[in-house]
Amino acid sequence: MPNGKSSLAKARCPASPRGREAARIEEIFTRLEAADPHPKGELEHVNVFTLLVAVVLSAQATDAGVNKATRALFKVADTPEKMLALGEDGLREHIKTIGLYPTKAKNVIALSAQLIEKHGGDVPCDREALQALPGVGRKTANVVLNIAFHVPVIAVDTHIFRLSNRLPLVSGKTVEQVEAGLEKIVPERFKLHAHHWLILHGRYVCKARRPECERCIIADLCRFEGKTI
Asked: Which candidate in 10, 68, 89, 139 is catalytic?
């Protein structure tokens, strides 16, 4: 049976570097959760199909710009059948303010047809089937899985990529490396909303040109050499 001295010595042992890093990550997400317990994506949609379309349209475009175009679009085409009836020319007229709109219109019409032909008009709830749709990559599939089907996956966009490398959470040269790393290190209880917390923090606080460190709730946990405080 251990004596009191050995038990006390064990209790005073410093945490390992791995343990300290896990505690730091836990604290980062604890604070983000406390500041925004129920985060939501900023792309406007009325159902799973319109969410999918909005995410496809958002590639290399702002959410605000996409929302401006889709408010009228989704009033007339909120199902694959209605989108197909609108046609590529009709869709282009609705989304011509969005970058790369000719290609995006072609993809949205094609994915609408494929949803009808292969999925009975429903949006599938697994990544492989989603990525088989025209214009849908891994990030788009992850966003739909997370928001529509509440799957705890993290879709790495430019904001999350920058933030993860800056703090850092996970350092990586590709979005695939960062996604895989975040899947490993984000505590399970935070995974469902981690995607939104990181995007919103990167979009409005830890900005690309000048991070607003003076109002950052995790500044003391950040190791970025370019911190402004």
From this structure: 139
Query: 36 an active-site residue?
Result: no
- The predicted-structure confidence for 26-66, as pLDDT tens digits, reads as follows 999 999 999 999 999 999 999 999 999 999 999 999 999 99
| Structural Rg of the chain based on CA atoms | 21
Rounded Cα distance between 208 and 204, Å, is 10
Long-range Cβ contact pairs of 106-112 (< 8 A, separation 24 or more): 106/134, 107/56, 107/134, 107/135, 108/53, 108/56, 108/57, 108/83, 108/135, 109/83, 109/84, 110/134, 110/135, 111/52, 111/56, 111/80, 111/135, 111/136, 112/80, 112/81, 112/83, 112/84
| CA distance linking residue 63 with residue 158, whole number of Å | 13
Q: How many CA atoms lie within 13 A of 201 on its CB side?
A: 27
Domains, the chain, in order of start with CATH, read: 48-149 (1.10.340.30), 152-221 (1.10.1670.10)
Tell me which of 96, 157, 191, 207 is the catalytic residue: 157
Active site residue 126: no
- Tell me what pLDDT residue 129 has: 98
- Through-space distance between the first and last CA atoms of the chain, rounded to whole angstroms: 51
Residues 72 and 97 sit within 8 Å (Cβ to Cβ): no
